[in-house]
Each structure stands twice: as C-alpha cells, then as structure tokens.
Design a protein that fits this description.
two-stranded antiparallel ribbon; 2 strands; 31% helix; globular
C-alpha cells in the first residue's frame, strides 16, 4: 500500500525491477482524491497526513524526499 501512494526505488523489495512513481508524484500539480482514509491502518494515515502537510514524500527504498504539489 505504501509503495502505491509514495512509489518505490529499484531494488527496494523483491520484484521492484524499476523505479516507480506513486499516486502523490503522479498527481503533482493537481488534485489527489483520498476516499475512505479512516479505513486505512493508523500508520498509513499518519504517513498520508505527513505527506500532505509537509508536501514531501519518500519513496520506498529511497533515502531522500521528493517535493510534491498536491491538494
């Protein structure tokens, strides 16, 4: 789930053969519609809130954060 929202780097886990952007990077410059957030695990809710507030995301397997511009 985290890799879908934030993307991942090549080699981050088994099967990650290429870099992939997540929903936040794909929606950068536009709107990201999040539905049923209350149904997500609390840990994922915290990560989503942080990404929205700080406007930065870290891909799975990455050491740096990427800026995102979503609303």
């Amino acid at each position: 789930m985290e890799s879908e929202f934030f993307g991942y780097r090549k080699g981050a886990f088994t099967g990650a053969n290429t870099d992939r952007e997540g929903f936040f990077q794909a929606a950068s410059g536009g709107t990201l519609f999040l539905d049923e957030v209350a149904e997500l695990p609390m840990g994922m809710q915290v990560k989503l809130l942080r990404a929205i507030q700080e406007r930065r995301v870290r891909r799975v397997g990455d050491v740096s954060e990427d800026p995102v511009d979503v609303r």
